[in-house]
# Entry
Amino acid sequence: MPYRLDPAGDAWYDGRSWAVRTLESLTLEEKVSQLMMPFLLGDFAPEGSSAARRARTFVETHQVGGIIVSVGSPTEVAAKLNWLQRLSDLPLLVGADLEAGAGFRFDGVVHAPTNIWLGGATRFPALMAVGASGDPGMAYEMGRVTALEARAIGVHVPFAPVLDVNNNPENPVINVRSFGEDPQRVSALGAAFVRGMQDHGAIATAKHFPGHGDTEVDSHIALPVIRVSRERMDSVELLPFRRAVEVGLGAVMTAHITVPEITGARTPATLAPAVLTELLRDEMGFGGLVVTDAMDMAAVDRLFRRGEAAVRALEAGADVILMPPDVGAARRGIVDAVESGRMTEERIDRSVLRILRAKEKLGLDRARTVDISRVRRVVGVQAHTAVARRVANRSVTVLKDERELLPLAGTPTASVYSVTYRRPTDLRAGRAFNTSLRQTYRRLRTAYVEPGTTRAEYDQVLARARQMNLTVVSLHVGVRTASGSVALPEATLEFVRDLARLGRPSIVVAFGNPYLLSEFPDVGTYLTAWSGVPVAERAAVDAILGRIDVTGRAPTRIGTFQIGDGLQIPARTGAAIN
# Structure
């Protein structure tokens, strides 16, 4: 069932609607509770455990209007959400960060002692992979699959797509989460994603308004300042959001950034009426839900008392207070603001009615739980994983191949060395890549390095590389680290540079941050698969071995390469796969 905003606005709802009747029955405290969307893990929470008590407190004591859920297996998350829905007096509006499909949060469960993957939802490559494909149809399909799997699990608001234009390669927080650097392309792909999601029953959420792409600061850590003119914002940052609003976007998530050109001060956009009310609501005509970014992020949480921050977000024009670090303090702050006359109850009513209308349009007033038996028939099924595989295959982008190594001949007896850089906790990084390589190269040798690997240990890896026919270096560098950095350690950079100078055949594959190429321009063969998910790792191997056509084009400038660059390499005759 499509999720569409009603163009007639308030007139569509009369006194007989569930949303209006429910609003009229609520006390001020109950109305304020509807604005709250705290964070819960999707883990198993046995009755009597601290996790279960925390969840019960949110629903029974604070009577929250919604939950943002993160990390867990699909059936466990569905069961937990059903339990919470039954506990709640009113249906809960459930959100989740599903930027790269439902598997972005509900996949990748690994049993650590055995390193066995326990399965999960469909995981797509990052959105920049869709940008590399350049295909709005791929964006639509990604939105469609994400919506179907989310709704089957019990999630109504997948917080996607990211519509930030990533025009700053130093950006530590957006990076490959964006469709790319070209505002027109981001607009087209974003609008297609929104339609795919909302045509299939979920509420798309464009983020992070008014645009988080041109920053070198991570808003989880500090407050980024975007110093650009309003004219530049109209032509770049705001363009994708305007297009999404035009196609019926259901929700917007704010950015914890400050834009002095609009706000005239160092006020985060989340707390700025000039951004959320004057620009988004009045000028752009947006009538859907405005969701704050996480209120426990340092860019906001360090600036104001917790109750005060929630009040200011509502004064700015927000509807949903996402992840308040103290739900009780946020509720008390808003109730006190109304009772003191600082804020009217009518202002609270407007936001609560939007939330209740969203629940009604989703059908939650009639059926708030999901059929657990249906999860396995919808989530992670072959038809959906095939879509993710097509996106991955279409996205692989080769920027350099100076010695024309690609595609490799695939001689089974060749001595090939696979060196994987990963975080110690990233147990799956390189797993699918090396498994796929070993199917061709029976003598494959592997090595894993990480941020703490020493220069002496890299020298040992380099010595082995000298003896090999080919060395492939896989770089699993995520969007950001705890410090906000997307850089590699100096020892790793020196290893890659030394390998390039060896004169032996080598390939560097970026599974994540594609801008790393600027750190080692002497690398002869460089390709990016945009993220280190299994479908992307397999696609990279298939591209290297000539099993698929390499058709990806850079959706952003990378080093000296421009938007649209990318070697087009046909599959080897007889090697193609479906």
